[in-house]
Design brief:
This protein is α/β, with parallel strands linked by helices. It has 9 helices and 16 strands.
Length: 318
């Protein structure tokens, strides 16, 4: 591998570029890797039966139908003046495209994940269950980072139902093996804990890579690590690179599956270069479970069984 390619694969670990935009005068940020493009003056089809109240309409882009979300309405903020030339940030993650309305787009900022402030630690600031963290480009300027995975799940509850229906045919027993899950989105974290627990795994879930590394160093006998990429303090790539370091104080050979809403080839190549056992795109629960089962089947030492074999049977979703 040439030096340029190797440098590219190593770059970006524990770093993030945030696109700042404004809604009702408040600054929000989104990882630039989730942004497809920014458009303005869309001709929306507004008659969308049975859509969420915050969906302003839909538009077609190269044959793809994209819902446009009124962020001010969704977040419970004062309405935006629709006579202004608002921007729409077109995103793609969960293998789903969506547009987020903003008053204007400001700038792209470069941060380290360790600079992200946990929203739960901030008192007297913007309080919303969809705020994950905050960053400060300057001392007097704060950008709130939203839980976009939770927003999409809230807007599209059928996504959860489709994933549960797709796993109905999968039957295996985790045998009480312990899995460490590192995921900052509370919604996705709860979903992973529920799914893996139903298949007989014991799940320990944390909200960032730094805490995950601490659990690993504490000598917990985990069978594998399931990690998101976007996380405060230490992102999934930095966590993976540290685990694979023989001097990190934890098992460098523990299986690690990267489970990320960012599914582009560059991210997959980085995960592969850092010796992840697999990269699975959220919310592909069936593929994730198959990867976990493959790793369980390859385990050399048979784990202690917890009792009666568990299988998962779900009623089909109509």
């Amino acid at each position: 591998m040439n030096n340029e390619a190797e440098s590219y694969l190593k770059s970006g670990s524990n770093e993030v570029r945030i696109l700042e935009y404004r809604v009702s005068g408040i600054s929000f940020g989104i990882n630039i890797l989730k942004v497809n493009k920014i458009v303005a003056d869309l001709h929306l089809q507004t008659n969308v039966p049975e859509s969420h109240a915050s969906v302003r309409g839909i538009f077609e882009d190269r044959g793809l139908i994209i819902p446009i979300i009124d962020m001010a309405h969704f977040l419970g903020l004062p309405p935006v003046d629709t006579n202004q030339h608002n921007k729409v940030i077109i995103t793609e993650f969960f293998e789903v495209s969506a547009g987020f309305m903003a008053e204007r787009v400001e700038w792209i900022h470069h941060f380290k994940w360790e600079d992200v402030i946990d929203a739960n630690d901030v008192m007297g600031k913007f309080d919303n269950r969809f705020v994950l963290g905050m960053v400060k480009p300057t001392e007097d300027h704060i950008i709130s980072l939203l839980d976009y995975e939770a927003i999409i799940l809230d807007l599209s509850p059928k996504l959860r139902l489709r994933q549960k229906a797709a796993t109905a045919h999968i039957e295996f027993d985790g045998g009480g093996r312990k899995i460490l899950v590192a995921e900052d989105s509370a919604s996705v974290r709860a979903m992973l804990v529920a799914e893996l627990s139903e298949f007989g795994f014991e799940v320990d879930a944390v909200g960032d890579g730094k805490e995950a590394l601490k659990r690993l160093k504490d000598g917990n006998s985990y069978f594998m690590v399931l990690s998101d990429i976007e996380m405060p303090q230490m992102d999934g790539l930095a966590l993976l690179a540290t685990i694979r370091d023989n001097n990190a104080g934890c098992d460098p050979n523990i299986p690690v599956v990267v489970y990320s809403s960012i599914g582009d080839m560059g991210m997959k190549k980085r995960a592969e270069f850092l010796r992840a056992n697999a990269h699975v795109t959220k919310l592909n629960i069936p593929e994730l479970l198959e990867k976990v089962r493959e790793l369980a089947d390859k385990e050399i030492v048979a784990p202690k069984k917890t009792g009666k074999r568990k299988t998962k049977k779900l009623e089909p979703v109509g």
